[in-house]
Amino acid sequence: METFSLFLPIILIAVVVYFIYRYYKNKKTEYVSLDDENAIALWKKARWGLYIIIPFIFIFDIINNDMTGSKPNIVPTIVNFFLTRYLIKLMSKKGVNIGYPKLAAAGVSLCIFIGQIVIGLYIGK
Fold first, then answer.
1. What angle do CA 55, 58, 60 make, to 5 degrees?
2. The whole model's pTM is what?
3. What is the CB neighbour count within 10 angstroms for residue 114?
4. Contact status, residue 88 vs residue 111, Cβ threshold 8 Å
């Protein structure tokens, strides 16, 4: 936990810089087709499900690392976030009808997390 607290300010600065970059990137106005507008609207709803579930996955990962005696590692949580984001955006661009986008994002993130646990069990042996 001590090494994680050393990197926490750097992580927070990186997150703030990322959101500032996203704000100015989204400020540009371009012509967007109707399909892209629907995909963007779907992603805006789905990202809240992802933002809600990722802290719980992060906390569970820290608890699991403390129980096993290994070093805290946040890389799997970051990979989970970006992989889930990519999959949800890909599904929305392909035209998949998602009735509950927040729940779908949380479900995809949990499936990826379970996959990470299974891969960790097999590689850890």
1. 110
2. 0.66
3. 10
4. no
> Where does residue 104 rank: exposed (0-12), middle (13-18), buried (19+ CB within 10 A)?
buried
Q: For the chain, what is the mean pLDDT?
A: 78
Nearest residue to 1 via CA among 63, 57, 56: 63
* Residue 14 within any structural domain of the chain: no
Please say whether the beta carbons of 80 and 112 come within 8 A.
Answer: yes
Q: Does 96 fall in a domain?
A: yes
User: 């990979």: which residue's tokens?
Assistant: 79
CA distances from 102 to 28, 45, 108, 120 (A): 26, 6, 10, 27
In a domain, 36, yes or no: yes
Tokens, residue 80: 């989970």
